[in-house]
Request: fold
Amino acid sequence: MSKPLHKLSATEVVALTRSGKLSVEDAKALIARVQERDPVVKGWAHFDPEIVLASARALDKIPTEKRGPLHGVAVGVKDVIYTKDFPTQQFSPIYKDDHPKLDASCILTLRASGALIFGKTHTTEFATCQKGPPTSNPHDPKRSPGGSSSGSGAVVGDFQVPLALGTQTGGSTIRPASYNGIFALKPTWNAISREGLKMYSITCDTLGLYSRDVKDLDLLTEVFRLKDDVPPPAAPLDLTKAKFGFVKSHVWPKAQPSVISAWETAKELLVAAGAEVEEVDLPTDFDNLGIWHRNILHMEGQAAFLGDYLSTPEQLDPWVTKHVVNDTATTRKEQLESYDNIARLRPVIDSIAAKYTALITPSVTDEAPVLEEPLRFTGDASFNLMWTVLHLPVVNVPGFVGPNGMPIGLSLVSPRYTEQALLHTVRQVEKVFAKGGWKLE
Reply:
């Protein structure tokens, strides 16, 4: 191999295991990487090398002709996703050492595809609150890795595993990807089953996918059968024929100078590559999406966490308790209006996005924030909320650097159920954004 195992992409691992140049048990090198780096990054909620090696040896016994498309690829799993061989603790004292004896649907799919489930990554409590777990940003341990998929973003960004699963209810997949300088796909809502994940909001909860290489996201879309009705062309995207719509949205006043700089640089780089860009002003109804998203989360969160609250109220984070007691006094009328108005806007945004090769919008308001105890704030998700509740696929594309040397990404967005077309676009855009200065090393 021309580079160490921990630097390999998932696509490279699959090629090497198929050719016999790499055994799955060679994952011992990744175990060593975790043991070296976890005291700093603290990305793992549960990590058991013996289980990992036993699973690796079992995968090595599978005949070559029966090996799956992810054979031997190590995957970190956010600790709100059930795994039969590791506990699912949800960063909650209620579920400490809790061990459901089943796999979530997405884990079943990964195992059937030959993936090596590597361990459980840290999350905020129930993937809800902004009080962060012990995890630090691998590029600056004084800063947040984002949340709620804190550990998943950090361990991929730190070359501990090539792939990881997160979830997103607000901005919990895309924001950590930006902070850690990696790719992430939040697919169309319900395109991947969320059976076996701790529920927060049935309307918003979406499985998220992390990688350091866009080709690995292509691999995952194949594994999870994310296929467009009209597949993208085999030829690479010709940027001279591409048109990008830059969407500031109603939360643009929250954008800090670092993000504004990345935004303007992205436009300049795309124009220099021959693409057409224009700013898109969304209809004023879209300005209400933040309020409608909040109404849905509070009411669906009330239903989701009621049992935990009634059983052990003293052990819940106050953020979770606020949902159950409905501290915002959200009414059923407001809940219904939120559902209906958002549903009305989904086909509208689909038609707007369809006019462009992709929409481009900020992934974050700023670089990763400095961690301050005891909150360990995971960052502002304002730029992510509308795309989550509208159910559109989003990819964070890294490429830019803030004044403190931390990565900043921008989000590419496309109509619902067009993941393949979106990644086809990302493959060319990432080469352009790479000129923005960020390089994962």
